[in-house]
């Protein structure tokens, strides 16, 4: 009990300090992680084993960490998710290589020219692109790619890229909820319960499509003043800009595009090849560094503060996992629903959404899977309905705050690095209402359909 209280206190203090934005968030997360190890695991629990589990170094020694084979089971270890860390670092290195080759400037100007340099059509285009790509590629990769492109486009056409990035983060998580491969919680749910890519597409995919139709006008009305006010300046600035002039070296440009296409193919087919996302991240980094004239320069440009933030956050959340806080939360659902499917759907979708807004949705999904499996077996309710409810709750709830999902952290970090910091207030002002709206829509569709 004491260890649970201390773990909760540490997490709450970390959360408050991150929201206050008075100190670098990576330092706050690292201090919280260190406090969890020392105070919770060593002082309160006297457990060296919990420290080992939280740091999770041995997970990288398992063959399935790098090659999962035909079963392609997702790593559900607690503690630091090194698969996510390695994957993000590898993608960052690849993105930096593409940026130096002028790929993003070229792409942005091509897209802008196709819509006559008008920010509103471009804004809608980026939202749809973010959602569609996230159905097949991990949402983290999509945001790393599109956020950099949005920042570059904002610099070139002299408009604020923050509305683009906020909308893209949300639609990436929304698109990711449509398939098994789009968001990490869906991979956990699908592999644990035996669902396929098309099972998700037929169920959560329908909800995600309706949600996207609602979100496009929602975000347009949220940011219409910023988009319309910058339209004339963007068109004026764009005059004389040649997309081909953005390419610094045709050879480097061709190589970076080839690497990107190869990595995307690996991500799309990784369920069939058995290669894990960690392996794909390493491949992307190694090829990029091997074909670049200044590999050390690329490594220095990686946003290592974001990597450290993820590490600290994972350790702090492991305090809630190891002490059983998340398990208590999950079992509370079974106690208050009383076997009523309607109440179960309402409670699971909202509780998982609220929890995922503040606690990383990966461990929460892993904690909830055995709970819904048990609920289905003991109370005779359809497992499919509970699975789709959990998927939508964790995927969309994670969009509500800057730390709810990995894609959020990546996107806001890119914006801050390039001189466009997104405060908690500004992010939540738009994404929190959007999350509530889509969760309510999901609940209604789930209740009507199942």
Architecture overview:
The protein has helices at 2-20, 25-44, 48-55, 63-66, 82-100, 103-114, 119-134, 139-157, 162-176, 184-193, 197-229, 231-238, 250-273, 277-290, 295-301, 304-322, 325-337, 341-358, 361-379, 383-397, 406-417, 424-449. α7 (119-134) packs parallel to α9 (162-176). 50% of the residues are buried. The protein has 450 residues and is an all-alpha fold. Helix content is 78%, strand content 0%. The chain is globular and about 65 Å long. It has 22 helices and no strands. The longest helix is centred in the middle third of the chain and has 33 residues, at 197-229. Residues 72-76 have low confidence and may be disordered.
Key structural traits:
450 residues, mainly alpha, globular, 22 helices
Helices and strands in order:
Layout: H1 2-20, H2 25-44, H3 48-55, H4 63-66, H5 82-100, H6 103-114, H7 119-134, H8 139-157, H9 162-176, H10 184-193, H11 197-229, H12 231-238, H13 250-273, H14 277-290, H15 295-301, H16 304-322, H17 325-337, H18 341-358, H19 361-379, H20 383-397, H21 406-417, H22 424-449
Helix pairs in contact: 1-2, 1-16, 2-16, 3-16, 5-8, 5-14, 5-16, 6-8, 7-8, 7-9, 7-11, 8-9, 8-21, 9-11, 9-21, 10-19, 10-20, 11-22, 13-14, 17-19, 18-19, 18-20, 18-22, 19-20, 20-22
């Amino acid at each position: 009990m004491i260890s649970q209280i201390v773990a909760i206190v540490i997490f709450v203090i970390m959360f408050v300090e991150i929201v206050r934005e008075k100190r670098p968030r990576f330092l706050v997360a690292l201090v919280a992680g260190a406090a969890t190890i020392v105070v919770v695991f060593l002082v309160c629990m006297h457990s060296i084993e919990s420290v080992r589990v939280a740091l999770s170094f041995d997970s990288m020694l398992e063959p399935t960490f790098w090659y999962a084979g035909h079963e392609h089971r997702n790593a559900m270890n607690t503690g630091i998710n090194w698969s996510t860390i390695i994957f993000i670092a590898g993608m960052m290195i690849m993105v930096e290589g593409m940026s130096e080759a002028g790929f993003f400037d070229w792409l942005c100007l091509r897209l802008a020219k196709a819509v006559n340099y008008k920010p509103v059509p471009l804004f809608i285009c980026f939202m749809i692109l973010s959602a569609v790509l996230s159905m097949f590629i991990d949402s983290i990769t999509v945001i790393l790619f599109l956020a950099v492109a949005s920042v570059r486009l904002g610099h070139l056409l002299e408009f604020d890229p923050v509305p683009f990035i906020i909308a893209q983060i949300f639609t990436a998580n929304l698109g990711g909820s449509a398939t098994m491969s789009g968001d990490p919680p869906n991979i956990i749910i699908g592999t644990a319960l035996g669902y396929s890519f098309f099972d998700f597409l037929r169920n959560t995919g329908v909800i995600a499509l309706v949600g996207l139709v609602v979100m496009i006008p929602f975000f347009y009305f949220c940011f219409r003043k910023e988009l319309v006010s910058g339209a004339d300046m963007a068109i004026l600035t764009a005059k004389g800009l040649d997309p081909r002039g953005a390419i610094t070296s045709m050879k480097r440009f061709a190589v970076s595009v080839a690497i990107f296409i190869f990595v995307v193919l690996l991500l799309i087919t990784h369920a069939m090849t058995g290669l894990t996302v960690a392996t794909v991240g390493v491949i992307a980094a190694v090829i990029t560094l091997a074909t670049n004239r200044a590999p050390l320069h690329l490594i220095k440009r990686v946003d290592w503060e974001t990597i450290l933030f993820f590490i600290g956050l994972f350790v702090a959340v492991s305090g809630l996992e190891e002490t059983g806080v998340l398990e208590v939360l999950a079992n509370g659902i079974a106690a208050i629903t009383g076997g009523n499917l309607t109440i179960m759907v309402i409670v699971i979708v909202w509780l998982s959404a609220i929890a995922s807004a503040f606690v990383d949705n990966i461990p929460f999904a892993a904690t909830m899977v055995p709970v819904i499996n048990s609920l289905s077996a003991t109370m005779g309710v359809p497992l499919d309905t509970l699975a789709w409810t959990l998927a939508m709750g964790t995927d969309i709830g994670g969009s509500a705050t800057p730390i709810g999902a990995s894609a959020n952290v990546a996107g806001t970090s890119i914006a801050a690095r390039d001189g466009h910091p997104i405060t908690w207030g500004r992010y939540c002002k738009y994404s929190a209402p959007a999350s509530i709206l889509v969760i309510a829509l999901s609940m209604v569709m789930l209740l009507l359909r199942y």
